[in-house]
Amino acid sequence: MALRFAEVVLPRPKVITDWIRQNQPREALRVRVVELREISPPKGCKPVRWVLYATQPVDDVADADLVIGHYEQRPTIEDYHKCFKTGCHVEERQYETAERLERVAGLLSIVAVRLLQMRTAARETPDQAADQVAPRHWIEMLRAVRRIPAARELTIRDFVRQLAGLGGHMLRKRDGEPGWITLWRGYEKLQLLLRGAQALGKKCG
Length: 205
Hints:
By secondary structure, this protein is of the alpha+beta class. Helix content is 50%, strand content 13%. The protein contains seven helices and three strands, in the order βαββαααααα.
């Protein structure tokens, strides 16, 4: 891999945001560019080439590596936003005030992180025991509803797939891995079941 970095001057955008107004009062924008380029890619493969713009100082290789490290998190961040918007439907919440939307968005952001953690574990460590990642009472309820034999040990991949199955995923081989919509629906149903079980266990009066 070849690494290069430099400072460049860009024309000021026609649309001036608050950030540009506060941080870039000059006519031109001074930014740092970091380029990472693959020198000898495998035959038939397109070489990797990242051209990254940064506002933070890039004075040496360590600074450039930090910018690259931030960009490497992009797939995870995009996956989180898919879960947050597509799965949790945060944009479809109908509230009359921004304050109420902020509250539900804050709550759903935690849910999105939790689902992302479990799905990531299901992909990266599929044979890991489910109870190492998911709460025990979640597993017990899902086992009961999905009629999974008690003798069968659930891996985290099994748990995530069964959770999606609760949300409508058919779990057939040709269907592929569950998406965010079925995972969210399964999670939502599981939480309703857990709340019902909790309410049933409480004494009235």
